[in-house]
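Reopening this one. Same input as before:
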Amino acid sequence: NIFGYDKSLQAPAFDLKRAKELLKDAGYPNGFKITLSYANDRMPNELGPTVAQMLAAIGITADVNGVPATVFNPAKTRGEYSLYMASWGT
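Same output, byte for byte:
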């Protein structure tokens, strides 16, 4: 009952091997390191570390940078983050 929902669309399959192949094809056979930023007062605090663990499974080391939205949003707008997680509600 949420606008935009389409029950005919299927979630992509989890394919760890393919993800690692894509990283290798992109020139990162050993992964890379990046900082993952997010507003820790707008999302569950566990979300950032959980996503970092998922990225680690394919060789991406993500340092987690959870900051208050009053810090996160202006920095995001200025383009200061190389990787960030944001949310949108309906």
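So the earlier flakiness isn't reproducible anymore. For the record, The chain is about 30% helix and 20% strand.
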